[in-house]
Amino acid sequence: MPVMDGYELLRYLKKNCPDMPVFAMTSDLSPAVKEMLRLMGVKQSFEKPFSIKRLGLKIADELEEELGVCADEEQSICHGAHSERLSPQTLSR
């Protein structure tokens, strides 16, 4: 990133957006780096290259945990017992 590195971004997010779930992608996911990322508030870390499918599943898990919504097999969004499409505006509330 031209203006700041990932660690600076994590510090900024932790200070200014403490409730925002953060996922990190890195080429070095040694135990020390993984622990440092955890301490900086990273919910999930991925070592490059990583599977887009795995990333999508982790995002869906986070949505389910934080918002009580889940992505079903057809990629629609379900909320509670009702299967429905939720708009990005609804999810951002």
Describe, in plain words, how this protein is organized in 3D.
This protein has 93 residues and is of the alpha+beta class. The chain has two domains: 1-50, no CATH class; 51-93, no CATH class. 43% of the residues lie in helices and 20% in strands. It has four helices and five strands; from the N terminus they run αβαβαβββα. The protein has helices at residues 6-16, 31-39, 52-67, 88-91, and strands spanning 22-26, 42-47, 69-71, 77-79, 82-83. It has a three-stranded antiparallel sheet with strand order 3-4-5. The chain has a two-stranded parallel ribbon with strand order 1-2. β4 and β5 form a beta hairpin. The chain is globular and about 35 Å long.
- The Cα radius of gyration reads 15 Å
What coarse outline follows from CA principal-axis ratios? globular
Strand proportion, as a percent range, falls in: 15-25%
Percent helix range: 40-55%
- Average pLDDT for all residues: 79
Number of helical segments with 4 or more residues = 4
- What number of structural domains do the residues give? 2
SSE pattern: HEHEHEEEH
Query: What is the CA–CA distance across the termini?
Result: 28 Å
Uncertain runs are 79-86
